[in-house]
Amino acid sequence: MAGRGRDAPLYSIEHASFQSSDLLISDLVLTDTKLGKGADASVYLVEWNGTVCAAKRLHEVLLEDESPGGTKKLVSNFEIECVTWSKLRHPGIVQFLGVYLERGSRLPVLVMEKMDTSLRQYLESHSKDRFPLELKAFVLHQITQALAYLHSQDPPLVHHDLSPNNVLLNVETFGTKLTDFGMSRAINPSSNIRKSSIKGTPAFMPPEALQKPPHYNEKLDIFSFGNIILSTITHRWPEPCHLTQYKGNQLIALDEFQRRERCVEMFTAQEKQLFLPTVRRCLENRPDKRPSSAVLVQELRHITSVLSHDGHVVRPFEHLRQQLSAKEEECRQKDEMIKMNNEALTEKDEALSEKNEMLQEKDEMLREKDEVVRDKDEALREVLREKDEALREVLREKDEVVR
Ligand SMILES: Nc1ncnc2c1ncn2[C@@H]1O[C@H](COP(=O)(O)OP(=O)(O)O)[C@@H](O)[C@H]1O
Ligand SMILES: [Mg+2]
């Protein structure tokens, strides 16, 4: 792995603001390979004791916050994220591994399990027919399970920023996990008013979170989940339209579901039948009318089982098996072509060697003819030499007689 270098951990004054020393880890090899980027941080590929992991590091530019205590607040918020995350243990939550203090940097790095991609990246790079409905149900079911885990904490933990950016996938198994606990907070039911406004992904935020001051509970995540269903089914960002609309010359207020009807119109009949009742209830304006995450787990389990009874295959392994047999078929066809090409080559090879033999035979014949011509030439030259000799003898004798 091309590393940026191995650093000994530094527990120096620069990092004095990071209090939770029990979370610190060492022996990390950082790389420049970026896995993703959010509003606050970038995530890089790293190696920790020989294991490939992911590391979240806040954007350096945030350090330029010159407001009083700006950087300190930033690191302390990041520390809250680390501490909150470090306590979570669930198959549907990206596993937190530790915090690394990099030499020469004022920012701690959060090290976690590495995933293949985000749900958003997957939806953007695959068409609807390359991401079958039963797999989408499988993914959505796992999100509800992770949410039910967060909400079952005492007091409930609200994720606050549930969107396809913060849902990660392993693309072979379709294992699905939630990440980014930068805004997650435990909500005490008796004081569920937050002083500051909530940052989040606007299209996924319920109306109560946009109030000043925001007054909400874990049903905030349920509203976001309704939007996750919309974007997972349509591969679109569920951007709501205006709060009001003219009907004739009357201005009417739209509820949150109506504000996203353009998205719903893109559903097929089957998608409407299976998912619309759940979406409608998740997007209720009133939090108390939205289902709990425990109820959503049951609803998504039901949807996945309906899809499997309809002759669809729910498990990703079947999807993988189909992909595998398509690849096998492709390989078989290529093999067939290679064999045909090979046969054609062998035939050409045979024709060539036949021609070669013929040429050799002709060569042999020519050589033999050459031999015969040379012999005849030799015999002729002998006859001529003898005749020449005899003639010369006759002339000599005649000369003798004359003299
Ligand atoms: N563990 C991980 N494995 C692979 N990619 C990740 C991982 N964590 C985050 N990413 C990618 O990095 C992006 C930003 O991470 P995130 O923690 O959400 O940062 P931010 O707090 O700035 O939103 C994610 O949307 C995702 O694409
Ligand atoms: Mg994020």
Describe the structure.
The chain has 403 residues and is α+β, with helices and mostly antiparallel strands. Helix content is 45%, strand content 15%. It folds into two domains: 13-113, 2-Layer Sandwich (Phosphorylase Kinase, domain 1); 117-314, Transferase(Phosphotransferase) domain 1 (Transferase(Phosphotransferase), domain 1). The protein has eight helices and 13 strands. Helix 3 (133-151) runs antiparallel to helix 7 and helix 4 (219-234) runs antiparallel to helix 6 (269-282). The chain is elongated. Mean pLDDT is 88; it is low at 2-16. The structure holds adenosine-5'-diphosphate and magnesium ion.
Outline:
The chain is an alpha+beta fold.
**Uncertain regions: pLDDT < 50 for 5+ in a row?**
2-16
Range of helix content:
40-55%
- What is the oligomeric state here? single chain
Structural class call reads alpha+beta
End-to-end Cα distance, whole Å, is 116 Å
Order of helices and strands: EEEEHEEEHHEEEEHEEHHHH
Number of strands: 13
Determine the CATH superfamily of the largest domain: Transferase(Phosphotransferase) domain 1
- Rg, Cα atoms, Å: 41 Å
Task: List bound small molecules.
Answer: adenosine-5'-diphosphate, magnesium ion
Number of helices: 8
Name of the CATH architecture of the largest domain: Orthogonal Bundle
Taken as a percent bin, the fraction of beta residues is 15-25%
